[in-house]
Amino acid sequence: MELAEAIERSRVNDVFLRKGPRTPQPGSLALTGHHLIFSPAVDAATAARSPNAHVDELWLLHSAVDRVASEAISRDNPSKGGLLTLKCKNFMMCVFEISKLDDCEAVARSIETLSNLNDVRLEYPFFYRCSFTVLDDGWTAFDAEQEFARLQVRSDAWRLSFVNKDFRVCPSYPEAVIVPKGIGDDYLRSSASFREDGRFPVLSYYHRDTRSSILRCSQPLVGPNGRRSKEDEAILNSLLGAAAKGYIIDTRSLNAANSARSRGGGSEPKQNYSRWSYVHRPVPRWKELHDALSKLVEACNDSSASSDRWLSKLGGCGWLQAVADTLTCACVVAQCVDREEVPVIVHGAEGTDSTLLVTSLSTLLLDADARTVRGFEGLIEREWIAAGHPFWLRCAHGAYATGAITGPFEAPTFLLFLDCVWQVYQQFPCSFEFTEEFLIFLFEHAYASEFGSFLGNCEKEKAEYGIKKSTVSLWSFVNNPDVLQKFFNALYEPNESPLWPCVAPQSIMLWERLFLRWQRDWTHADGAQATVMQWKSREKELQSKVLVMRRQLVELSKEAQLYQQTQLINSLQVSDH
């Protein structure tokens, strides 16, 4: 398919932006293969004075559009034109008034087609030409070999396995994974045949102080006949060593795990995993999250709701409860590793959603490096992108729509992760090197981006489509010094201690800056925050100067003492003569 074939109207004049990220204004619309461009009208006097004046255009990726609607302004009089409504994946809404109804409907059909491409290779990242100098290639900044090299400094109990070379054992895993040192590849293959989709246990996080670890996998295929795998049991038992026990944290409820057994899945039988304690900490399934987000966004867009109705909608949507349940499970995993000093296995069903939620959040709580910009990038790359979270399916649509093909697989799992990170950030604002602006930036790029980091569902698809060869990594852009500085948190003070957030209902807050972003005027709030950040940055600059001056003072004091001693010696020598 040629993208140009889907464009029925390449340009439409006599357009009025009725609602959107700008003040209402007249202009024109243009459609390209990947963008809708709104150009504000320039009056004749301004054009005459400054014929080359810059026009502040609004560029919107088609892939950022969630739902398209077209309707006549007046049903009784279609000649009055039409209304084009675009509901975006970042919750923004744009309403354009177009003078001709035929043009409005043609533009709507074009955007509907171009925002639902079923071929990854037609997406914008394959056509984007890098407009900045790549100083740090994001495709090579984070890989398993570098991660393993850092791990070897702390522990020699692990090895880097290439059992999944060419993605033969597990299609959703990367080619290189970190596994227990004493376990051979043949055992890993046997374990893969015993785990759903071949997702055998691999290292997620190693705690340097307690020497305990977090591993992730998918559910065992026990089934109604009680199937077992001695190789899988050996892998898990090899983690215990001197430890008397370990924990298997199942992100499903007991009923869900039992129900899965009748369909061929299930949970590890206690008689075969006797040294492991089994804990069920239910995290909402990815299929439930889409409905919760849709209800939340609907409530946020209802400006006419009374206080009681707003609170009822907010509590009834289920999103905040999902945040609380996810954080609770992550805290349990972190406590097992940090307080009880035992290894933890985390899995749900497929191992690509709730499992990754919990392992990445527990790592964030335990590892101070994961709370830096660079460390957080590595966490997302390792625990989400390389770990096989199906971004292409999950983020095909947002809160406003479901896809005809991808609908059953869509879910805001990654957004839930970012919301949980924001909750911890709110409680520990000085322990994060980045701000919430960085989290919102990642949310938007997960759903629509000029970069290729979130394209595809796994590393295998990235290789098949040549994503790393033909597109630019998001991290290449973020790590550019000019871009990076706007995400830095001036309040940041390195904190090596684990973070223990409160998960009580009173502590779980609505992420207003994200969910009410387009309903409120944030000018004053952003201005006040910018002022605080500027003064904090100024304070750090002055503190650095004070440290330099103190060192200089110490050096001068030493020189003065040496001079006095020299003078004293000289005077004594003179008196002796």
Automatic annotation (TrEMBL):
**Gene3D superfamilies membership:** Pleckstrin-homology domain (PH domain)/Phosphotyrosine-binding domain (PTB) (2.30.29.30)
What cellular component GO annotations does this protein have? Answer: cytoplasm
Name any one Pfam family assigned in the record.
PH-GRAM_MTMR6-like
Q: What domain of life does the UniProt record list for this protein's source?
A: Eukaryota
Q: Which family does it belong to?
A: Belongs to the protein-tyrosine phosphatase family. Non-receptor class myotubularin subfamily.
Q: What is this protein called?
A: Myotubularin phosphatase domain-containing protein
Provide the taxonomic classification.
Answer: Eukaryota, Metazoa, Ecdysozoa, Nematoda, Chromadorea
Myotubularin phosphatase domain location is 138-515
